[in-house]
Amino acid sequence: MKKTLLTIVAAAMFSMASAEEKMVAYLFTYFTGNAPDQEQICYALSDDGYNYTPLNGGYPVISSDTIAFTQCVRDPHILRGEDGKTFYMVVTDMRSAHGWASNRGMVLLKSTDLINWQHSVVNFPTKYPKEWGNVIRVWAPETIYDHKAGRYMVFYSLRTSDPKSFDRIYYSYVNDDFTDLLGTPTFLFDNGSATIDGDIVFNPADQQYHLFYKSEGGRGIFQAVARQLTAEAGQVDGSQWTKLDAHVDQTQEAVEGVGVCRTIDGQSWIVMYDCYSNGHYQFCKSTDLKNFQVVQNTETKGKFTPRHGTIIPITQAEKDRLLAAYGNHTNPILPDFHADPEILYSQQTKRYYIYSTTDGMPGWGGYTYHAFSSADLKEWTDEGVVLDAKSCQVAWADGNLWAPAAIEVKQKDGSFKYYLYFSANAGDRKKIGVAVSDSPVGPFVDAGAPIVSDSPTGKGQQIDVDVFFDPRSKKHYLYWGNGYMAGAELQADMLGIKSETVKVLTPAGGDLSTWAYREAPYVFYRKGVYYFTWSVDDTGSPNYHVAYGTSKSPLGPIQVADEPVILKQQPEAGIYGTAHNSVLQVPGKDEWYIVYHRINKHFLHPDKGPGIHREVCIDRMTFDKKGRILPVVPSHDPF
Hints:
Tachylectin-2, Chain A; 4 helices; about 5% helix; elongated; disordered N terminus
């Protein structure tokens, strides 16, 4: 049988020339929502094409304000070039906050490593003032290589302000540098009504191009097929396409943003679309692009909320490069919003654990604690809720669990118990309680009553608790206080404090801008010295930072360090609000880490509640030869 050019090209695309070029995973490019901080390009990886893990902690890999006219982008489409090593991406240049009839162009991007991208903006009223001066929508561009023309083609939906206008798919060829469109837009296809979100693939099995699209008239995903991308000479533009009647989507839900990708083994196709009203993506499998079987619905939540994206297969080298640049060994280390982290190493399980305030709620209203565990401080597993202040687990409290502290205590019989100290609302004020478990992941059982109810100074909140084991005296101590720092020895059963030992430890005096104590005491011991760290200034202040002092005793007095500031924000690196820390010594080593929270950079504006959108980070902490803590530079990549 005679092979066509398209058959040969398609075969070459899916049987890469060398082992090094073998495809091993899938890269998903997408945006995450309709707010400006969500209209950004994000990445996720998958080994099977159906289950994805976000890269870069779920945050953007390209900032829209650096590439787009509107400073927002949507609908990213990614394509591997004909040379196998160049990548092309096109995105809608649109800020949806301005309305659904407000975008006028697209952004063209080109890369050779998937990390660094050149970009250029095409604004249609400027480029085509006569033909498209009144355009109100330039939606969902995608790229395909036209072998007949020997050029890359970008196709997209256009609509003008003409009341009779509706969205139709047009195309343009692109210049050699992939920086601009050539000629004026040419009509490609419509379904007789609004036609958007086109995606085109070539199927070697039937030697046809398959155009998938959303039909606003028919409410779903449909397809059309053609032997060539563009009309032959003498043909009417668009007449080359034959519409198929059957729905592609396998749901009754509202859908958009279809993406179709050949599987790594070349035996089937992944067909995915955004069920945008119901909070999930639906992934289907097809062997012939005629019949589609649902594989799964992928719930979109937390840091993974993909909207209208596309996928491509990638090589091992490309996967490794992406993981090195954006892997989940980056700060923040926990998903979603969390604050006030407490880190613990368990001798029983040989794992690390973090307990933290659940953040992102108005008024610091989180009322549950999760435990996160890790074997290496890099990969963290959510072990679920370990304490809930609104489900009668804490009978004396009515919500707002803040700033936990935890400790593992080995019992005389060789078993272990875990004590989780916490502050919670109790009527009109905060009190401190304790819950106990036989496991670091709970369930924790509340002791039944608060163990600290009043301030020893007569003012300030009873919050921000810390627990410390003194290796010299073999006693346990508790610390707490907002507006003051207090400490006391714990009773032998760990379920209360010895009231006669309560002592106010607030470092005297101080420059508010440098080391004046506000909250979050934390105590650790190293080489004969007791170190006290604390947070300075208010949570939402640009001056919110960590300072420290030392003592010869676990109950002070505290000598403020000559250079007390050890952790502060780095605005030039996009890092803000770094404070409220705990400290970890790697067992058996003089290797130390500081675990802290920072404010998510997309929630700095006062209208977005900057103090309640915090995320947990970790960085190495070091000492000089005199035992002084060296300033920690908060990073995006701690390992």
